[in-house]
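Submission sheet (multi-component)
Chains listed below:
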Amino acid sequence: MYLCLCIKANLMPSFFQLMQRGFMVKIRVGCSIKSLLCNQLGLSQEYLEERIQTILLDGRPVDDVESAIVKQESTLALSAALPGLVGATLRKGGYYAPLRSHISHSETASSQPIQEGMISLKLFNLLLDELGPTFLKKGIWINGRDLADFLNGQPDDFWSGCKCATVDGKKFELDKLTQIKWPDRHVFLRVKTC
Amino acid sequence: MERRIFMDKILRINMGAEGGPKATEEPLGEYAGLGGRALTSAIISKEVPPLCHPLGADNKLVIASGLLSGTTAAMSGRISVGCKSPLTGTIKEANSGGQPSQVLARLGYAAIVLEGKPKDGTPYKVVVNKDGMQIAPDTSLRMLGNYDLVEKMKGEHGDKIACMSIGPAGEMKMSAASVACTDMELRPTRHAARGGPGAVMGAKGVKVIVLDDAGMKMRSPKDPEKFKEASKRFVDGLKKHPVTSQGLPTYGTNILANIINEAAAYPTKNFMWGRFEGCSNISGETQAETEKKRGGLATHGCHRGCIIQCSGIYMDKDGHYLTKQPEYETVWAHGANCGIDDLDSIAMLDRLDDDYGLDTIEMGATIAVAMEAGVAKFGDGQAAINLVKEVGKGTALGRILGNGAAVTGRAFGVERVPVVKGQAMPAYDPRGIQGIGVTYATSTMGADHTSGYAVATNILNVGGSVDPLKPEGQVELSRNLQIATAAVDSTGMCLFIAFAVMDQPETFQALIDMINAFYGLSMTADDVTDLGKSVLKNERDFNTRAGFTAMHDRLPEFFKKEPLPPHNITFQVKDKDLDTLFNW
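Outcome: structure written.
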């Protein structure tokens, strides 16, 4: 299924909790994190180096974005700079990385060819504001039950800021969106501002 | 010519003196040049018999401003509270934000020392202002919560004061009791909490210290021009760093929750798991959004002169003030660690902790241990609230819980009790971040994340470089961090400056230049290292004389035996490596 929502721009943060939990994107897997973020998703090298300070691949802090390979169904989490000793410890290639060496990501040569696939992406803190709207406009895949929970949990001011919706390409009344039985599998969500 | 305020005297109040409490003022003497943690630990180490009972006449409660408190220096509002801890039996320094540090320093006091033991349980009020000190019994204060107490003080002394107080937990001498410090809005939301200093204040019979600096001026530096120039460089450094200028102001310390959870180092349900399914419901991002939606604040300071603004104001569902923005540690302790993913329950627990005067980390850990024992169910927010209310009421169950996780674990026969030297661990599982485990194990304070927090060791160059491939690397880093932290804790600076100081050598130099310009000194980075080492040496020496040995520098056994999912690793740093930490 495919839901497209048209909303006021100030409602974008409403979707950020979903994006913290993780959403699926279709990409070409088997490449490095750097290749994914810069070549496929269009982020600048400077943004990757300066802004994205902490990267976790399948729950393991990454130090080298060129050798860490994104595989089918990998989970990639991206964060801006974090406070505290642990924040510094988790930073990619940081001075304090030895403090978490037991969980650090270490890459072995990729046995997977570069091919179409899906990964789970998690955006945290400042990156939610900076990257979240772009992903929402392009469209993300999320579990239908999570979408149902999200829609059911929205207050009145969310719905008053929603302008229109389409489901599977057809116009749909906003007040009936919560009545849809979303399937327990990935559905495609696009959110545009208008 | 304007008179300089020197912060060169100590106010000692003997609560056990014949005929009632007696106050004396004395010069700093051999403690000259020390502030904050350096001063509290020096006094405790020298004057308190290490084997004394923490609640007895021989223990002392030392309250000390930092070296730069009361000046125009940004971020200089931390106050240190030291004693022999009733929770750990070790030396203790707990520090807090809020207004008292600045006000006490402007009154010219480097420290207030509460000594002796009162004849009975009468609560006393201490007032310190430009005219001196008054102390008087006031039975109307008995068992007041911190919020009502401060409101009463406001009515009696006006709204320009700062208060340090204890709630019912301190009066009941519970080992998890805190000393509350008021914030800019004159609310008792900041706490010197770790290790139970509130119980020692309660044992001294002092319910509240009212500090009033009306008529006093800002402390002025010896070299105003150099101080101003260094202060500007320091502020510029904080303003340009992404953590201190963006991450912390936007989301507060709870910005850490999501990423620690993703790294599977977020202790969940009494340290059984490393990930919490409901993390995004209680993350800093969600918390900030909730605060803004309800008319609270996601960006706010805890004291005047704070430019990082990592705090906030949390409103309830109806838009009424409930508490300040709960910190990362609090949200974790009462949240993931108890399986609770409801921010409103967590905020209520934070409010109750502040009102009763309790350490939020200790209480969260304690409730989780009680939940593992079956006293309540993991995830039941209302049950957790009810348990904290038991503490406030001082019921039999409440008195067990109010004495911390170790006591509660023993009372209910729980094996998995995450404490070191009797103090509960904070929000990082040492199996995930093993270097933190080294600090938990070896800190002079018991399990304490802030002991190795001031991440400036690469700039200080203490201990040389670390080879990450060698196991001793973890120990070496932890040692360097503990030294650096002890030094920063002595300045009165908020520890959160560490983020900018770590990454920007010029910002660290600006901090040293500020101290030099203020006092007319010529300290170098090496001198700062020596200061940190001397603080740790004092503390370690006290602990040794109190009976602590290398055998106490250990994590609980389960961290070595129970693999932490999903990485399934145990704590692997060897005991022999831990034992080398204090070799320098």
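Remark: The beta strands of chain A are 2-7, 23-29, 54-57, 60-61, 75-79, 115-123, 140-143, 162-167, 170-172, 186-193.
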